[in-house]
């Protein structure tokens, strides 16, 4: 590795909030800790006002009255940090996640120089993520990080020669080096070493004697020899801590007990996020005796046998005795990974009562609640409560999936009027719901295929009863093969986009994310109600492009849109691969017509004596129906196609396609798949994919049809009784969210080591993974407990029909039961 780069986000906490709330740009902004008591991060405008880290909020407001103060949101910060890492991986083959706002990467020259690389990395993250960063490139990670600190803010620099390195080190104090703090600096000062250059010029053996092998590694790094490699995976946590101040002196045992329980819950959330269990737990309590302001710290340490992440097991270990602390700190040591834990449990004398692996209602509800919590910012507070209630009711409902049946499934019939008002009048940011769901899906396993995010888009009809339902149009029903089935139906025609998740050796997963309603040009509905201005006409192709671009902007990284040949048109292909303005480029994979016009790449030079402009198109190739005549050999392999591993013979060619334009290289493939008489003809702009990968990924697209079936049969997409615009759109979005969350809950249960909870029917012994129905059955199995926990989360009182909710006004509006 010739050069290592380092990226450090400038005032990350503040600038991440400005990505979410653009109106905060240019205003003094401070980020508060979890308790909201003190400032932990400041924007440059707030720094100029004299606010320092650690200032109490009441003092900061006095000194900066026009400042904006927000509490830290780790979920959002993690999302922004993950998007930065994804962008970095598009520019480098190796990237390391060092911290939430710092990352290292293997630097490759762009435009012939490493300075160009630094500027490209800084510019791409700023453009696609919205966070300003500083980038430094040097021969080692220590020098790159040091250069990054010096070049702040929003700098981009490359230092790769010994002379440049010496000028960088000459004036910087040795404490600027990563790994050398005040104690080590004091040791070095005893031998006359105070600057980074003096440290680099010192004898290596002296540094090793003073600072052990850790200091010796830093010495090598400062002298340009890379001995600390980049790591793609973070090392496993050895200790996790949660705690904080009680805010005032107290001797109230209930207050102390409640604070301990709250921090234990926070600790368990972090444990389950990292998939760890506690092997040993310590409780530290800080007392004050008389006027002693420093206090006395006492604590105890106990082993957890067997290791566990269950609340009841850990609570029994750390339940506090009578004491009068002013602070409470819980920390877990020696986290044991799930894979290590399995062996440990089997070799122990036996698990403690309640620690046997099981899918209980508390674990299931904690997973479900954590997933739904990510949508809180899309609603006001009462609106989020209604949204959680609605989605949970859809998952528990075994009858018609209407609003009234959903509240009955929750045993909360008195909430029906408030729920219907919420569907019609409540505050609901549909775009924010889509962004939240997209970022949740981004955390699912198998999110990328061969380095690409793979959104799949298609349209489907949701049958409705008549003209009185907003947005319905008449369509020819292609499945009407018998005389007693109508050839023309009235329906909503949805263009839906979802994520394809790869599971090696098994069929892919499909998670719906977003959608748009399509209307026939002759049957455009009114914008609201049934009279007034009509909605604008947009083709299905325009809607598909809009959905794909929306996903690409939210997630960043490389995208490969997969769709059927019905969308393989110029109006879809060209906006994706040759975007205008700031729209991202998106590759495509689709079915190719058997008479498609293909060309070889255009010539790169002129023939002798040739005149006129250079040709844009190369020699015309045989159409796909005669793809066997393409130059090149036939290849053979095996791929998972439609649920079975099949033998595939294929031939591929790289050239140009009339639909994509002369400036876009494409790869066309014809494939003979075992069990199918007709050849597959596919085309993609991701020319680095092999023909076998193209066949397997395109076959995975048909999991979208299974997703549509589950939405209609399991979640009642065609049972909606709404007839006005907002309830229709919101009901569909709630059902997409419910289906995706059911799958995400399944993934989290599997990650938590829960097995055996789904049904293996005797007539299908080969079933090897759960379905959406299995996850619904699990929720219904624990239905009484889930309903109780939901009621506790919503509050003690239930709303009757006369109580207002979410800004609703009199009248039910357009939702029917």
Automatic annotation (TrEMBL):
<dbReference type="InterPro" id="IPR050116">
    <property type="entry name" value="DNA_polymerase-Y"/>
</dbReference>
<dbReference type="InterPro" id="IPR043128">
    <property type="entry name" value="Rev_trsase/Diguanyl_cyclase"/>
</dbReference>
<feature type="compositionally biased region" description="Gly residues">
    <location>
        <begin position="807"/>
        <end position="817"/>
    </location>
</feature>
<feature type="region of interest" description="Disordered">
    <location>
        <begin position="597"/>
        <end position="630"/>
    </location>
</feature>
<dbReference type="GO" id="GO:0003887">
    <property type="term" value="F:DNA-directed DNA polymerase activity"/>
</dbReference>
<protein>
    <submittedName>
        <fullName>DNA polymerase IV</fullName>
        <ecNumber>2.7.7.7</ecNumber>
    </submittedName>
</protein>
<feature type="domain" description="UmuC">
    <location>
        <begin position="4"/>
        <end position="181"/>
    </location>
</feature>
<dbReference type="InterPro" id="IPR043502">
    <property type="entry name" value="DNA/RNA_pol_sf"/>
</dbReference>
<dbReference type="GO" id="GO:0042276">
    <property type="term" value="P:error-prone translesion synthesis"/>
</dbReference>
<dbReference type="InterPro" id="IPR012337">
    <property type="entry name" value="RNaseH-like_sf"/>
</dbReference>
<dbReference type="InterPro" id="IPR001126">
    <property type="entry name" value="UmuC"/>
</dbReference>
<dbReference type="GO" id="GO:0009432">
    <property type="term" value="P:SOS response"/>
</dbReference>
<dbReference type="InterPro" id="IPR038721">
    <property type="entry name" value="IS701-like_DDE_dom"/>
</dbReference>
<dbReference type="Pfam" id="PF00817">
    <property type="entry name" value="IMS"/>
</dbReference>
<dbReference type="GO" id="GO:0006281">
    <property type="term" value="P:DNA repair"/>
</dbReference>
<keyword id="KW-0808">Transferase</keyword>
<comment type="similarity">
    <text>Belongs to the DNA polymerase type-Y family.</text>
</comment>
<dbReference type="GO" id="GO:0005829">
    <property type="term" value="C:cytosol"/>
</dbReference>
<feature type="region of interest" description="Disordered">
    <location>
        <begin position="798"/>
        <end position="817"/>
    </location>
</feature>
<dbReference type="Pfam" id="PF13546">
    <property type="entry name" value="DDE_5"/>
</dbReference>
<keyword id="KW-0548">Nucleotidyltransferase</keyword>
């Amino acid at each position: 590795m010739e050069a290592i780069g380092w990226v450090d986000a400038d005032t990350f906490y503040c600038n991440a909030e400005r990505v979410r709330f653009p109106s905060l740009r240019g205003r003094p902004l401070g980020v508060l800790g979890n308790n909201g008591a003190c400032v932990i991060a400041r924007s440059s405008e707030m720094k100029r006002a004299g606010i320092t880290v650690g200032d109490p909020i009441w003092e900061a407001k006095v000194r900066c009255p026009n400042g904006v103060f927000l509490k830290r949101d780790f979920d959002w910060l993690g999302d922004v940090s993950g998007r930065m890492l994804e962008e970095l991986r598009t520019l480098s083959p190796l990237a390391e996640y060092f911290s939430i706002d710092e990352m290292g990467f293997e630097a490759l020259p762009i435009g012939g120089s490493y300075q160009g690389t630094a500027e490209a990395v800084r510019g791409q993250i700023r453009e696609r993520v919205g966070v300003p960063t500083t980038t430094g490139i040097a021969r080692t990670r220590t020098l790159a990080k040091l250069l990054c600190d010096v070049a702040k803010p929003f700098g981009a620099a490359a230092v790769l020669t010994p002379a440049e390195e010496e000028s960088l080190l000459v004036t910087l104090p040795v404490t600027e080096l990563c790994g050398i703090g005040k104690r080590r600096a004091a040791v070095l000062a005893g031998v006359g070493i105070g600057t980074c250059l003096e440290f680099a010029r010192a004898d290596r053996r002296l540094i090793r004697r003073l600072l052990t092998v850790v200091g010796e590694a830093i010495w090598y790094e400062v002298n340009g020899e890379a001995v600390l490699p980049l790591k793609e995976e973070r090392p496993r946590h050895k200790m996790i801590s949660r705690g904080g101040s009680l805010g005032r002196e107290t001797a109230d045992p209930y207050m102390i007990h409640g604070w301990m329980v709250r921090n234990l819950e926070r600790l368990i959330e972090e444990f389950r996020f990292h998939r760890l269990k506690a092997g040993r737990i310590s409780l530290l309590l800080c007392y004050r005796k008389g006027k002693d302001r420093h206090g006395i710290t006492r604590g105890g340490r106990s082993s957890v046998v067997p290791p566990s992440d269950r609340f009841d097991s850990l609570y029994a270990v750390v339940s506090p005795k009578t004491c009068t602390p002013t602070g409470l700190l819980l920390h877990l040591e020696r986290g044991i990974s799930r894979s290590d834990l399995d062996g440990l449990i089997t070799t122990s004398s036996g698990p403690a009562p309640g620690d046997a692996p099981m899918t209980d209602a508390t674990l299931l509800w904690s997973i479900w609640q954590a997933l739904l919590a990510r949508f809180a910012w899309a609603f006001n507070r009462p609106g989020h409560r209604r949204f959680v209630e609605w989605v949970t009711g859809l998952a528990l409902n075994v009858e018609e999936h209407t609003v009234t049946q959903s509240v009955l499934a929750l045993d909360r019939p008195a909430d029906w009027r408030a729920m219907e008002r919420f569907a019609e009048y409540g505050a609901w940011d549909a775009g924010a719901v889509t962004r939240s769901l997209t970022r949740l899906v981004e955390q699912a396993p198998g999110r990328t295929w061969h380095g690409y995010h793979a959104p799949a888009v298609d349209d489907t009809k949701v049958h409705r009863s008549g003209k009185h339902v907003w947005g319905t149009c008449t369509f020819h029903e292609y499945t009407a093969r018998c005389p007693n089935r109508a050839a023309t139906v009235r329906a909503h025609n949805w263009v839906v986009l979802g994520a394809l998740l790869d599971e090696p050796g098994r069929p892919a997963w499909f998670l719906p994310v977003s959608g748009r309603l399509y209307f026939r040009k002759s049957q455009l509905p009114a914008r609201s109600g049934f009279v007034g201005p009509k909605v604008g006409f947009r083709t299905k192709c325009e809607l598909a492009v809009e959905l794909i671009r929306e996903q690409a902007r939210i997630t960043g990284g490389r995208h490969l849109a997969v769709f059927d040949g019905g969308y393989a048109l110029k109006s879809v292909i060209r906006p994706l691969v040759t975007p205008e303005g700031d729209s991202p480029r998106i590759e495509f994979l689709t079915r190719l017509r058997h008479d498609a016009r293909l060309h070889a790449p255009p010539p790169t030079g002129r023939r002798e004596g040739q005149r006129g402009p250079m040709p844009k198109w190369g020699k015309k190739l045989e159409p796909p129906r005669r793809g066997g005549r393409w130059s090149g050999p036939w290849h053979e392999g095996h791929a998972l196609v439609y649920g079975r591993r099949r033998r595939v013979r294929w031939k591929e060619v790289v050239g140009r396609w009339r639909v994509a334009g002369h400036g876009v290289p494409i790869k066309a493939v014809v494939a003979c798949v075992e069990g199918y008489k007709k050849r597959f003809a596919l085309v993609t702009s991701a020319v680095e994919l092999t023909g076998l990968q193209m066949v397997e990924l395109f076959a995975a697209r048909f999991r979208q049809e299974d997703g549509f079936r589950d939405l209609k049969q399991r979640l009642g997409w065609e049972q909606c009784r709404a007839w006005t615009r907002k309830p229709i759109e919101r009901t569909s979005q709630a059902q997409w969210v419910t289906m995706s969350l059911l799958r995400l809950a399944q993934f989290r249960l599997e990650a938590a080591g829960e097995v055996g909870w789904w049904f293996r029917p005797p007539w299908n012994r080969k079933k090897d993974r759960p379905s959406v129905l299995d996850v619904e059955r699990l929720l219904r199995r624990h239905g009484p407990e889930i309903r109780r926990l939901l009621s506790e989360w919503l509050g003690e009182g239930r709303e009757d029909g006369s109580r207002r909710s979410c800004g609703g006004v009199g009248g039910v509006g357009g939702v029917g039961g």
